[in-house]
Specification:
This protein is mainly alpha-helical. It contains 21 helices and four strands. 66% of the residues lie in helices and 3% in strands. The chain starts with 6 loop residues before the first helix and ends with a helix. Pfam families: Xan_ur_permease.
Amino acid sequence: MKKYFQFEELGTNYRREIIGGLTTFLSMAYILVVNPLTLSLQTVPGLPDSMRMDYGAVFVATAIAAAIGSLLMGLLAKYPIALAPGMGLNAFFAYTVVLNYGVSWQSALTGVLFSGIIFILLTLLGIREKIINSIPAELKFAVGAGIGLFITFVGFQNAGIIVKNDAVLVGLGDLSSGPTLLAIFGIFVTVILMTRGVSGGIFIGMVITAIVGMIVGLIEPPKSIFGPIPSIEPTFGVAVENIFQSPSEIFTIQMLVIVLTFLFVDFFDTAGTLVAVANQAGLMKGNKLPRAGKALFADSCATVVGAILGTSTTTSYVESTAGVAAGARTGFASVVTAVLFLLSLFLFPLLEVITAPVTAPALIIVGVLMVSSLGQIDWTKFEIAVPAFLTIIAMPLTYSIATGIATGFIFYPITMIVKGRAKEIHPTMYFLFVIFILYFVFIK
């Protein structure tokens, strides 16, 4: 085992890897609660049950997808990087595709499956890296920051801090209400923990907020800690079955845009995470990422597996940097994280106490982490600043990640051509320009 994971070469040991794997799990365990809440649209009242995914099934799908993805990354690529259904991608799935577009969650899962299959093909052909390199860095950073703002906006809504206002569209909610006060308390606790550099600060903040909620009577205590694993039957295999059951909803331009969006966002989530974690762990060699193909293949397979199980796109988690900071250097840490995700399946009754006010602080803080990419954008160049800014601001204001991406990618070739920098535009950007023009013509 030590030889396979190159413990001696990387100066690590079982203790460091186990602690690193545990730290990574604690840092990203919030997804076990946030993902089911998001995909089941629990915080959106008045929806028919047909629009909501089964909470228990999504919980199981999330845990298993995270376990399989992390295991593949650890064993194949040997990187201390854990995977799980991605934040931002699940928001796009639930709030944009299902809620705004009116696409069934079954068809949305099929879209995730298609994107995963395309991922595998592109990875095996070596095209995925080339496509990633063709997108301007500034737009990659803008997409990450825009998704961060979008997730934060959703968090403020779930907390009741931001509410609908007929006069000015949105406004400040009732800060004296119990659930909102609980969410505000959670924000303060999580901010303090994260500022102090506490490993798993987001997860610990959720636990403290939930305990306080139970003490003050805002959350009903769990009837038990351990319990039977919920059935995954409501979501398992639906992505495949739906291809034959709803072809009229699958083979459309709208679905093409959805699949491309899943593809694009996961492209840069994974690429950014791989580079960030590898840099922090000192694994980069000559500014190149060793075993990049295997890492991307693991990520692609995890997306396909997750879609079949019943969850949105599974991707690499930047929270893995917390595990690296705790000492993780090899894929053994990812194996440890995978085992912990499997064990979490038995804690379903306990996790039911995590309500919207408890998860809202996690969404807000994750948003804070994601907008750090703003500093990487050259705002002094107007031809770059315009498409980057429109990408970022359009996401929360239109309540659509896809619209933000489309807006920025339409303006980028325009501003670059007018500036006289047409030669710097990769041909892929012209293709995306056409795709997103069609997006607004036929969908919006």
